[in-house]
Recover the amino acids of this structure.
């Protein structure tokens, strides 16, 4: 069966520090991968999606970047975090026209 | 571009009351429609989905949703809510490729 792993679960980082959140999927090949940010009262905002290794589409220009170094690995990064980067980050995967499966999320607090 | 509007940000009901959460979408072509639920402290989970066929879709835990193409709506319903239905509910639409979420509706069911 397919599983999705996301870590860490919580993270507290100072302003200006770098960020790396990792997401891996098991049990499937060539999935579409997504990073969403969930903020209270604002729903889920799509940040990046990838349809293959090295292929990244950015939905919202901001202080973050994403990379897909392997088929089932998706990384969300920042060189210098801002206070406004605080939020709940969710990784998800999908195949074809099926629904998305979400990871457990990372609660990021920038202080 | 596709968009999703959820009518209510917060809903408070007593147990056994009936539930209807509104969802309207904007997209000119064929869509896939979803409702996701996030129980307190848990992952986002798929509640139900509509791809084609019967516009009345039945999901888990007694939920159903009706796709009304002429109204661009996909409202979620449950005849009798339980305390355990307390959660945040997200409507989502996929048009061309990615999933776009509404801002969510927080449902609080009082015993």
């Amino acid at each position: 069966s397919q599983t999705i792993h996301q870590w860490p679960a919580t993270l507290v980082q100072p302003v200006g520090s770098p960020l790396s959140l990792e997401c891996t999927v098991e049990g499937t090949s060539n999935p579409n991968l997504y990073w969403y940010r969930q903020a209270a009262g604002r729903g889920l905002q799509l940040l990046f999606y990838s349809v293959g290794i090295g292929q990244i589409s950015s939905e919202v220009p901001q202080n973050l970047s994403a990379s897909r170094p392997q088929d089932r690995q998706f990384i969300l990064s920042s060189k210098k975090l801002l206070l406004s980067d605080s939020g709940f980050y969710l990784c998800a995967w999908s195949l074809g026209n099926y629904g998305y499966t979400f990871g457990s999320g990372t609660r990021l607090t920038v202080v | 571009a596709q968009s999703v509007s959820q009518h209510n940000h917060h809903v408070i009901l007593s147990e056994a009351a009936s539930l209807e959460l509104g969802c309207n979408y904007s997209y000119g072509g064929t869509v896939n429609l979803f409702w996701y639920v996030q129980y307190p402290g848990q992952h986002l989970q798929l509640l139900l989905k509509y791809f084609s066929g019967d516009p009345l879709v039945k999901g888990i835990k007694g939920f159903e949703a009706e796709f009304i193409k002429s109204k661009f709506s996909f409202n979620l319903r449950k005849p009798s809510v339980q305390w355990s239905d307390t959660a945040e509910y997200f409507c989502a639409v996929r048009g061309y490729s990615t999933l776009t979420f509404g801002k969510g509706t927080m449902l609080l069911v009082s015993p």
